[in-house]
Amino acid sequence: MADPNARHALYDLACRYAQAVDRRDWAQLTEMFVPDAQLSGPAFMFGDRDAIVAGLRGIERYDTTQHHIHNQLLAFEGNDATAETYCIAQHVYTVDGVKRKLDWGMRYHDRCVFDGSAWRFASRSLLVDWTQDLPLEG
């Protein structure tokens, strides 16, 4: 069985990623990736840490976001780990004066490495399983 501290650290990494994106904390987000990391998703691919952070700044077009991290399955091999992490991502935006909420049911497929001091993302793929876009009331 893998080290329970490593399991906790990797779940924490996924949660801190969600927090950094939602708070637009680009400095914190930068520290979560190795320099040559890759991030891919529907219709995008960023090939290093700087490109990842620059690309994720596109989320600023939303009024607010909340990423809710759920179950996570891990596999370990030495100082490397693979993970599948479920997430519901909520995006609030305004169009023609009407607030709307775009929800994504998604999974992250990650490869993480332990660099001697912390776990970091080496690659992250975002897979969207479903979407829902509705007017937001209240």
UniProtKB/TrEMBL annotation:
Mention any Pfam family matching this sequence.
SnoaL_4
Positions of the SnoaL-like domain: 6-124
Q: Which domain of life is it from?
A: Bacteria
By what name is this protein known?
SnoaL-like domain-containing protein
Per the UniProt record, the source organism is: Paraburkholderia caffeinitolerans
Top-level taxonomy: Bacteria, Pseudomonadati, Pseudomonadota, Betaproteobacteria, Burkholderiales
